[in-house]
Design a protein that fits this description.
about 85% helix; mainly alpha
Amino acid sequence: MKLWTALTGAICFALACNLDTVLLAAAYGGRGLSISPGPSLVLAGVTTLITAFSLLLGNAATAVLPPETAEVLGGLALVGIGCWFLLDYLRGRTETAEEEPSSPGLAGWVSLAAALAVNNAGAGVAAGAAGIPTLAAAGSNFLVTLVALPLGHRLGCGAAERLLGRYALPLSGGLLVLLGAWEVLL
């Protein structure tokens, strides 16, 4: 059961962290552009490395604090970050720099991936402290990113981009609140 809980937490974490990736791909799809496999791997790889590093930082907090305390604090931090996302949505701050496609080229893709990963960093530290396994969360992030890009492209080619763009922030916030509550209560 513990393995199931860890995998569920890792997948929820990856889903919450990749809604902006779906928006990025939707913006490209809305312009009739697609993200080829090479840039997709760059985006997935860089975001996963930065996310894994932030998870490791959160895990390091557990070395200083008793495990139960670190998990509760990490879970509460995830709830707080999720609530912050929800408040930002309610205040009308839904604009994101990731919605505009960056210039092509390796440096542009790496910069864009780093910008996407910054959104994951705070949640990654909190998730690591909450006990979400680094390897499972990083692996889930990599795979979910690779799935999010073509999904976003397909959505961007249709009218769903406007709907997804409107509700991505509260959906992400809600997932983080649920994940944090899950970590605190279990």
